[in-house]
């Protein structure tokens, strides 16, 4: 019998109203590294770090063809909350277990990638930075193939994707091309296993211009540019994760590795969170770690070989290069939180984070003032009201 309910349109939404306090006063803590300001230097308390609103609509044209658009408003690089398109794709279900999507989607690099901005669907105020800040360009425009299959009592979802994307920030653009990835979700009873591998070519306009200047210094500069420039070199992301949730309690952990023969180097990250549900209340605790495994310093250009003012320029370039090499996230974090699901579709979460920055890392803090010194530690207090409708 034909489905007389089609075509149909559904509208859903989600959001977060949050405030964050940071005890670092000479730099800003941000959840999005491309945001213009956050908590700390710009204000001890900030309502802009985690607050967002998202709307999603899906048009089911037929039983096998649909279109989905999701728009999210949150703090941007220019200080505004202008809405941006997070999802915009057509989906064709060839069979009940095989579907093809084309348009704008989100990379499936980590366990919670696709709904990382729907804070109501995750146990934290924000996803652990140690893992989820490894990939700055999360969206891509391309194609996506999904296949569901069954092995014994397990349900398996295999995803293949290919495309590219771009992300605008204050001083340029970050572009990705020839991005491809494969991921696997396996659900077996109360256990979910996840694995993902992907590669992407990244181009950052500001970095390209920086290394073009290096090339003006002859063979030594060209050698350094060839070694560290990002353009045209693949960035590889490998991750695995596990979640066990029998209902009354849960534990979740992920490990990820980003590697590239460029300025980005090699980073290994991991996090683990455990929580216990007591009626409407869920206390939880977590730990995280990020480590840079590649070289974080470089002698750079031999400035003594160049006459003034080229020698002064070489010193300046070398200083900037070393600052970039040491800017990668290297930290340990400890988290305590309490979530209160006080009504259907709404939850209030309070979270405390203590973060130790290792190896002189700036910890992803922005708006660093002259008095700011990389390293040290930071304490964060967050309160968030999450909702879905």
Helical content stands at 10-25%
Q: What radius of gyration results from the CA coordinates?
A: 22 Å
Number of helices: 4
The global form is globular
Report the mean per-residue pLDDT as an integer: 93
CATH-level-2 architecture = Beta Barrel
Helix-strand category? mainly beta
Descriptive notes:
The chain is mainly beta. It is built from 4 helices and 19 strands. It has helices spanning 129-132, 205-215, 218-228, 310-325, and strands spanning 8-22, 28-29, 39-40, 45-46, 52-60, 65-74, 84-95, 98-106, 139-151, 154-169, 172-188, 191-204, 234-244, 249-259, 266-276, 281-292, 331-343, 346-357, 377-388. The chain has a 16-stranded antiparallel β-barrel. It has a two-stranded antiparallel sheet with strand order 2-3. Strand 17 and strand 18 (346-357) form a beta hairpin. Helix 2 packs antiparallel against helix 3 (218-228). The radius of gyration is 22 Å and the shape is globular. The model has no long low-confidence stretch (mean pLDDT 93).
């Amino acid at each position: 019998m034909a489905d007389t309910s089609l075509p149909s349109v559904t509208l859903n939404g989600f959001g977060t109203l949050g405030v964050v306090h940071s005890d670092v006063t000479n730099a800003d803590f941000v959840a999005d590294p491309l945001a213009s300001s956050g908590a700390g230097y710009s204000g001890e308390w900030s309502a802009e770090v985690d607050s967002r609103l998202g709307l999603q609509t899906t048009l089911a044209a037929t039983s096998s063809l649909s279109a989905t658009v999701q728009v999210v408003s949150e703090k941007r690089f220019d200080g505004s909350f202008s809405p941006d398109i997070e999802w915009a794709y057509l989906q064709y279900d060839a069979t009940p277990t095989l579907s093809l999507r084309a348009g704008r989607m989100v990379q499936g690099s980590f366990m919670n990638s696709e709904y990382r901005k729907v804070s109501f669907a995750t146990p934290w105020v924000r996803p652990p930075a140690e893992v989820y800040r490894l990939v700055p360009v999360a969206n891509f425009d391309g194609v996506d193939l999904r296949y569901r299959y069954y092995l014994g009592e397990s349900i398996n979802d295999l995803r293949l994707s290919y495309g590219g994307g771009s992300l605008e920030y204050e001083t340029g653009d970050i572009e990705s091309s020839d991005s491809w990835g494969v991921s696997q979700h396996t659900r077996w009873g109360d256990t979910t296993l996840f694995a993902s591998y992907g590669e992407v070519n990244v181009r950052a306009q500001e970095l390209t211009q920086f290394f073009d200047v290096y090339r003006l210094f002859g063979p030594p500069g060209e050698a350094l540019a060839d070694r560290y420039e990002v353009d045209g070199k693949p960035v590889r992301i490998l991750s695995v994760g596990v979640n066990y949730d029998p209902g009354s309690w849960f534990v979740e952990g992920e490990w990820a590795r980003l590697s590239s023969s460029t300025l980005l180097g090699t980073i290994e990250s991991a996090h683990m969170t455990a929580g216990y549900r007591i009626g409407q209340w869920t206390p939880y605790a977590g730990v995280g770690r990020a480590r840079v495994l590649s070289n974080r310093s470089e002698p750079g250009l031999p400035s003594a070989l160049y006459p003034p003012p080229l020698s002064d320029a070489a010193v300046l370039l070398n200083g900037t290069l070393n600052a970039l090499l040491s800017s990668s996230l290297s930290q340990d974090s400890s988290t305590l939180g309490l979530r209160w699901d006080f009504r259907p579709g709404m939850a209030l979460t309070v979270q405390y984070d203590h973060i130790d920055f290792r190896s002189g890392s700036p910890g992803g803090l922005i708006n660093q003032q002259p008095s700011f010194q990389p390293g040290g530690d930071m304490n964060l207090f967050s309160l968030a009201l999450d909702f879905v409708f």
